Amino acid sequence: MDNKYIAFGAVIFLALLLMAGCGGGNEGVSGEGSDDFPSSTINLSVPFSAGGSGDIMVREIARIMSEDLGMEQSIVVENRDGGSGAVAINHMLGQPADGYTLLNQSSTAPLTMASGGLEFGPEELAPIASMVSNYQTLSVLADSPFETIDDLIEAAKENPGSINVGSSQTYGANHVFLLKFMREADIDLNYIAYDGGGEALTSLLGGNTDVLASSGEVVQEQVAAGEVRMLAISSAERVEDHPDVPTFAELGMASLEDELIWRAFFVHPDTPEEIQERWADILKEVAETERFKEYAENTNQDIYFTSGEEFKEIYYNYYETAKELFDALD
């Protein structure tokens, strides 16, 4: 055979080998499809210190995946706190986009991005699924003259800026919640930020503030003890534990419906779509276990599983609304 035909055949053979090696471009970085995923160690990255609410949830989910779902892969929980979540995000973005590093974040993440407190944009995280949530509320002391939300609004209109509202941090979930309330009610309240919800609650109990903006979880014990009254809540419907407390939506404040504090999971934005969907399926299984339902009940949280386009829309809405509110403060 002519040498030139032999050489040509060799070139074709090598080209076919290269094409085969490059195949499966829509599969994970490791070359596996979603049916095989996961097949190696999973890293759950927590942007909080050990022992906090987010850390407790992630460790419970890790146990459920191993013990209840029977996942055989090693699951490592890593605490990477610092930089308002930046340390954990940077770590995840530095890992292969193969779905083996799953990042836990709360609804604070898109808000901190909107405020400029995080150097990342919302597109730098791929939202997978939310797991739990807690409604927000405006609360007063049991003997406060503000019996209803209307009482509070009327007093604020009569004396703009004279009512002190304590809450947790600036540009956080409680701050956005209060800004939206003031916009809906067309009033001006004096916002006082504390380091955390517990400190803000102490200020209310000590008479140093008039109103507390917080999650329902923060005031649960004081409400049960009759020391504090909730004026309204941000859930879509009234909650079983407080059937007499109206929702903001009932009171005509539609933008405060489902203004929740949620905890969720994200992956590297370049992670293949089928791997993202696989994670959503796994986390849905977790959310449906009796063990996870018990965890949520014991921590005064609600199961809040959303995924796919639904959760993506929630995530981006939180960012865009907060950006609009914060820009209006400048």
Oligomer: single chain
Order of helices and strands: HEHEHEHEEHEHEHEHEEHHEH
How would you write the strand order of the largest sheet? 2-1-3-10-4-11
The rounded Rg comes to: 24 Å
Estimate the strand proportion: 15-25%
Q: Which stretches are poorly predicted, pLDDT < 50 over at least 5 residues?
A: 3-31
Assign a percent range to the helix content.
40-55%
Please supply descriptive tags for the structure shown above.
disordered N terminus; alpha/beta; 11 strands; globular; single chain; six-stranded mixed β-sheet; 330 residues; five-stranded mixed β-sheet
Report on the structure:
The protein is α/β, with parallel strands linked by helices and 330 residues long. 42% of the residues lie in helices and 20% in strands. Strand 1 (42-46), helix 2 (53-68) and strand 2 form a beta-alpha-beta unit. Helix 4 runs parallel beside helix 11. It starts with a helix and ends with a helix.
Short synopsis of the structure:
With 330 residues, the chain is α/β, with parallel strands linked by helices. It has eleven helices and eleven strands. Helix content is 42%, strand content 20%.
